[in-house]
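Example 3.2
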Amino acid sequence: MTPRRLVAPVAVAASMFALAPVSSSGQQGLSFEQYRARVEPIFIAPRGGHGPGMSPCATCHVHSGTPLKLQPLQEGENGRVFWSEEQSRMNFEVVSRLVVPGQPERSRLLRKALAVQAGGAPFHVGGKFFESQADPEWQIMAEWVRAAGTSPDLTAAEATPPPLDFEFFRTCVQQIFLDKREGRMECIHCHGGGSRGFARTLSEGRAFWNLEESRRNFEVLRRYVEPGYPLRSRFLTHPLAPEAGGDHFHSGGRRWLSQDDPEWQMLAAWVRGQQTACVNY
């Protein structure tokens, strides 16, 4: 049986869902010079990837639509690859959004490729490059993040990541995977199986997931959520229009054309750990 849905009013208090802006020169305190001289070379360090001098980082993050979307590499003499200063500044803007100033252990940039047992994220498509936080390259990135200091706008709630409410996911978030929006594809069509299967295909004759299935869906979806940070959560940025702050590419199209979309606002509140009513179409 499909859980009963509470529908929230379309008008939501803007102050409740205010988003911290990212400045045109990266987040406050992050050094572009240090980034270009020490951090950016890590993305093209030779590791046996494809193409002249390309590392697995650049191989994926130049060509794919991930949140870490890097500029196309240029090739110089002797096969040397590089980014121009203008391209580096564009990369810096993107990378800055994946960093919590002063807190490397909370920064997606540092957690995705770090082994889980060392404090890394549960899943990274490109694999794990750093087995320990003692890795010299990991330390270079950590020093850059620490040098920025803690953001003065960091709230107490952000300082301690809020837990994701499983019950709200089970009864409300999952309903989004089934809901049809005009001109847009339902999530279940692409996410019914595989490593990104957070909306597992339902057996014939059933309209919703049971408790055990919901827990499996939840465990997969958690890989794409950064608790406390909607705009660092791929679940919220991947189907969001690029001009509204979303990722560059999503094979399933754009479910949300604006961050003002009531459904997106509801999910943002959930990611922040805030109490909110369920919004479904």
